[in-house]
Amino acid sequence: MQIDLTILVVERDKTKAHEIIDALMDGGWNNVTVISSPTALERTVKDLDPDIILIDLANPDRDTLEHLGQVANARNRPVAMFVDQTDEIMTQAAISAGLSAYVVNGLQKDRIKPVLETAIARFRMVEKMQSELDAAKQALSDRKMIDRAKGLLIRARGISEDEAYGLLRKTAMDQGRKVIDVATALVTAAELLQ
Q1: Which domains does the chain have, with CATH numbers?
Q2: Does pLDDT of 1 surpass 60?
Q3: What pTM did the predictor assign?
Q4: Alpha helical stretches, state H, the chain
Q5: Does residue 49 have a pLDDT over 80?
Q6: What is the distance between the alpha carbons of residues 187 and 115, in angstroms, rounded to a whole number?
Q7: What residues form DSSP beta bridges with 83?
Q8: Cβ distance 98 to 74 under 8 Å?
Q9: Would you give the DSSP letter of residue 29?
Q10: Triad 15, 16, 17: Cα angle to 5°
Q11: Cα 155 from chain centroid?
């Protein structure tokens, strides 16, 4: 597990904050910043750009969860939240906010390291899945554009689908471009001529 992470902790109680710092240092994480108020979170996130955020709240409400998820930019970094109590609606709000870990029954020193490690692993897994989904969407979009370009060539030149693709590919190679770029240019030009 990477130990040179910048960790931001949101904890109102000074005694608990010191316990958290001790637990993080025991886990090998030394670059820890603590703020006492969630209201300072947005500014601190911008200034510090932490790798992970740990938030301890006794009884958050749905709006607080959503706000903290957005302010902490939970889609771009792991965010672990410890709460004393929850219900199904709050749990769903935590998931919707993009939290990597939502731990009920409060923060306990011996749980911090495994929860953060799990939050980091979960965040990386979700990030990888999102990246794969984005790549699949882009490949589908590219495929559709290439098919449109092939259709234009088939109609304009009276050639087969394989010949149309071969022409796109040859043009791309001759110009040192990608097939998708040539296809996009052809479709764009055809739309301008209509």
Answers
A1: 6-107 (3.40.50.2300), 133-193 (1.10.10.10)
A2: no
A3: 0.69
A4: 14-26, 41-48, 62-71, 88-96, 109-157, 161-175, 179-193
A5: yes
A6: 51
A7: 57, 104
A8: yes
A9: -
A10: 90
A11: 43
